[in-house]
Write a structure and sequence with these properties.
Two copies of one chain form a homodimer.
Chain A: H1 6-12, H2 14-25, H3 37-54, E1 57-61, E2 68-73, E3 81-87, E4 107-109, E5 112-114, H4 118-139, E6 145-151, H5 159-167, E7 176-179, E8 191-196, E9 198-207, E10 213-214, H6 215-218, H7 225-236, H8 257-265, H9 270-277, H10 290-295, E11 299-306, E12 317-318, E13 321-330, H11 336-349, E14 356-365, E15 368-369, H12 375-388, E16 393-397, H13 402-411, E17 415-418, E18 433-435, H14 436-459
Parallel strand pairs in A: 3-6, 3-7, 7-17, 8-16
Antiparallel strand pairs in A: 1-2, 2-6, 4-5, 5-18, 8-15, 8-17, 9-13, 9-14, 10-12, 11-13
Helix pairs in contact in A: 1-4, 1-14, 2-4, 4-14, 5-13, 12-14
Chain lengths: ~450, ~450
């Protein structure tokens, strides 16, 4: 078997790698919608089969909601073991009419691939498989041991993987976790993320009358659950972004001064950032910088309100019930369980006349911080420097990757969070995309990172 | 041709009358949804054909939105002419899963007929046709002249009939209008309505960012149009029911003392009323009685809020845009045009940071009062007393029948509003019904009313 450099192998196989990604992107694996259950299984089988094909022992694991995919290659005794994490489920696609091309028909335009899940997280997950194949098929072996677990519920709470990790922690034992479900601070700036916000995602259900009412006949005496939700939601956060839930801010820790100083040194162009958000004005608490607001301050957002009539034209209904989806993003040291209790109590206190409110937790995850120093972070910095030709920055993300906290608490493992997404990738929105340049650079950086981690054993550094 | 009493004819034909109503109820003539355009035309043709069959000159009139149906029988020279009004369009049916039987498959249970439009207004409109048939086929003639106009846009603003009335007023010349699109104060209590609230139905559109945002990445800086609508809506009406729009109450007239005194004499059981509303507590301004609140006080209700994600599970989206449907009910002497301006200005003043608001009028109609005395009202009282065996009460309705104001302003005609609906008919809601007893009593009362009006000519009273 003739050997070629893994990076050369990766370059020569770019087109096939892209075809494989497209094949995965064509599967509409929306985890939150039950009609896609069969698609979830198809996506899991696809990944298992690809892992087997490149030389991993691989299986799908049913039994906890959507299947998990697990694979391992453990033929490097004495070398470190990295546990890889990705997810194959994607967000819903509505509003569908705003997509320029159908969300599950991947389309390459301007050196980007457009599809739901392109960046979050199918494209990034596939960089693991392509990097491993490049090493295995290029050199015939990996420079370290790899375990990989890919879940199908990242977008809907992640119950299955949490249960699996707590029940089968031994099988997942490793030296460090690597997650490619994050992004780069800006195009061309390789990034290691050191903090993630947590989340509490809730539903407030408002019940008014026992049946829908005609607003002519009963408007003025009949309780309106939509007006009620407006009062409650308006009272939870003011127009300046302050969240009016007693105790909510008690555990919020401001980042250390040197961390804040490092953020101030990051290149930041307010106009460009506003353009990226697509908003004339940035909202929220103006006493904090935009990066602080999204990285280290909690927030509260409404995601949708159902009930009543939203079709074209007019219907003069006072609906019997209405529901709002409301989430909060949490920062260290807030805890999801405690915040949900504070939230629920406050909502119930705000109950308007004639209305019954119920508050339900859909999912909750704690925020997480990862150490900014250590041999694995150093290996990642080295790989990123070599691949991108400039030093990596340490940043945080306002998003949540709940499993990072679970790996820390259950397995005692820190995580290296380096990802290839860009701020304008339209995650969770129409026209999600993934940069093809970053796709290929991500494969290269991952190859280099594993080579550097493998070399740590010889240095005795792990 | 052997003559029989019109009331006997009506009794003998009850089953066929019910079958005809069912045939009309099977047509899903939802005016506000454009996919039902063909159903609208079918319903109009059905009514035209029935009018022709019983001896009217009849036609459908296209050209102004959904077709109008017009019919006339003018062979009683020297007798008064009554202009009849009804509508064949119905409200949408959502939430469809709360219907016990499908909304367009009429089902008779417990002496009620259940279907969308049963009471509002197909069942009531058909009483005109059945009363006219009973007189024409029973006695061979009508005791007066009748014109009838039936519109297909009552539930969506009524543009077509308003245009027709203003362009073809002469053709509709009459002595009085009769509308059967109202209800009885309570079961067994025949009712003449003397006041109707007006309406201003609006849409508030909130635009945040130019594209949907991920609440993790941008929560805290990205403007959220759903939170924005909550702030705006919460500020438009407080929890006690007071509408916080400057100038809104300026033109509101409290009813005269004798009118309020007559309302206090109406039988009113608060517990029964609460049960009818289906609410534990009645809301609104407690300094006014429930009847005052619904008959003579304005109100503001949200009917639906679209935007973002309302499916099962969780989607962490900050939508780019969201829309709320908000209506106000108006009372004498408020004017729709003025109130809309006040509303729009207030909404724009309330614009939250980072958000652009647009306010659109969907339709507006002024409130209306009709005189409580006169020969036609007396004829109606006499017919109701004979039919129901007890005196009619004078009441108002919180609902709007915009055309009543148009007939007054454009044709100078007052309206006799007597209808056969009941408070628990579930208008605009799932499981709409119409009492079969009231259907048949309504036919009888209409026959007697026309006989009494015909007799007015001989008394020289018109």
């Amino acid at each position: 078997m003739s050997h070629i450099s893994p990076l050369d192998y990766a370059r020569e196989n770019r087109e096939r790698f892209l075809d494989e990604l497209k094949e995965l992107l064509r599967i509409p694996s929306i985890s939150t919608l039950s009609e896609h259950r069969e698609d979830m299984e198809r996506a899991a089988r696809f990944l298992r089969d690809r892992l087997s094909a490149i030389g991993f022992e691989a299986e799908t694991i049913a039994g906890h909601g959507h299947p998990l995919v697990y694979g391992q290659w453990l033929n490097a005794p004495g070398r470190p073991t990295v546990l890889l994490y990705g997810h194959y489920d994607v967000q819903p696609v509505d509003p569908i009419d705003l997509w320029q091309t159908p969300p599950f028909e991947p389309d390459v335009r301007d050196d980007n691939i457009y599809a739901r899940g392109a960046a979050d997280d199918k494209g990034q997950t596939m960089t693991f498989l392509h990097a491993a194949e490049s090493l295995l098929h290029g050199e015939g072996r990996l420079p370290l041991n790899l375990k990989i677990i890919i879940e199908g519920e990242e977008e809907c709470g992640g119950a299955a993987i949490k249960a699996y990790v707590s029940e089968h922690g031994g099988r997942l034992a490793a030296d460090v976790v690597q997650v490619a479900d994050s992004g780069m601070y800006a195009p061309g700036i390789p990034t290691i993320e050191t903090g993630l916000r947590g989340i509490v995602y809730t539903e407030i259900h408002a019940q008014g009358a026992s049946h829908d009412l005609h607003s002519g006949l009963y408007g003025g005496v009949g309780p309106n659950p939509l007006n009620a939700l407006a009062w409650v939601i308006a009272d939870l956060k003011d127009r300046k972004g302050h969240i009016a839930i007693p105790g909510f801010y008690d555990d919020v820790q401001r980042p250390a001064d040197d961390v804040l100083a490092s953020w101030r040194k990051l290149p930041f162009d307010l106009d460009a950032y506003r353009a990226q958000v697509g908003a004339r004005d940035l909202v929220g608490m103006q006493e904090f910088s935009p990066l602080e607001r999204t990285w280290s301050r909690p927030t509260l957002d409404v995601h949708g309100i159902s009930g009543g009539f939203t079709g074209e034209g007019a219907k003069t209904v006072i609906p019997a019930e209405a529901t709002a989806k409301v989430s909060m993003r949490l920062v260290p040291d807030q805890r999801a369980e405690k915040v949900f209790e504070l939230f629920r109590n406050r909502v119930l206190e705000l109950t308007p006349p004639g209305i019954d409110l119920r508050v339900r937790l859909i999912h909750g995850d704690d925020p997480v911080l990862v150490p900014e120093r250590g041999p694995f972070i150093d290996a990642a910095r080295q790989a990123l420097q070599q691949t991108f030709g400039r030093p990596a920055v340490l940043a945080r993300s306002g998003g949540s990757i709940p499993i990072v906290g679970v790996f820390k608490e259950t397995l005692g493992l820190n995580t290296v969070l380096m990802g290839w997404g860009l701020p304008d990738d339209n995650l969770h929105a129409p026209n999600e995309k993934f940069s093809l340049e970053n796709f290929y650079l991500g494969i290269d950086a991952t190859v280099r990172f594993w080579q550097a981690v493998g070399a740590l054993a010889e240095q005795g550094a792990t």
